[in-house]
Design a protein that fits this description.
single chain, mainly alpha, 4 helices, globular
């Protein structure tokens, strides 16, 4: 494995470790001994009430997503940039990006992205999606 591949793997491992550490520090659900997060479908896809959803979603993004994804660009970091992700772009498998497909991708992960179902609550995922729609 070349140094670039090794670096990418190490960065991914650090991202997962940081996400778990942050989730444990701020009281979100994680680990086998805690209750499982409710499915995001139970939360509104518009995010939290009022204009604060962007601030809440932006913070969720900063803590959990920014290490691997640019927010102000569609260019690739470790994963694809999120700018314009809801404006006609598609996932690598050709699936269109909708609230539902993005929620499933965040919860289940895929390819090199770890799952966040045990890290983020349904409301945090809804806030995150609302924020990403504004990018």
């Amino acid at each position: 494995m070349g140094w670039q591949s090794r670096l990418a793997v190490e960065m991914l491992a650090l991202a997962v470790a940081a996400t778990v550490a942050m989730a444990q520090g701020n009281g979100t659900k994680t680990g086998a001994k805690t209750a499982k997060a409710k499915p995001a479908a139970a939360a509104t896809t518009a995010g939290s009430a009022g204009a604060s959803f962007n601030a809440k979603g932006k913070e969720v993004y900063r803590v959990n997503c920014a290490i691997c994804h640019f927010s102000a660009s569609s260019g690739k970091k470790i994963g694809p940039g999120m700018k314009g992700i809801f404006k006609g772009r598609k996932f690598e498998d050709g699936t269109g990006v909708t609230d539902e497909t993005m929620r499933v991708w965040i919860e289940k992960g895929g390819k090199t992205m770890p799952p966040f179902q045990e890290v983020l609550t349904a409301q945090q995922i809804a806030d995150l999606i609302a924020y990403m729609k504004s990018l």
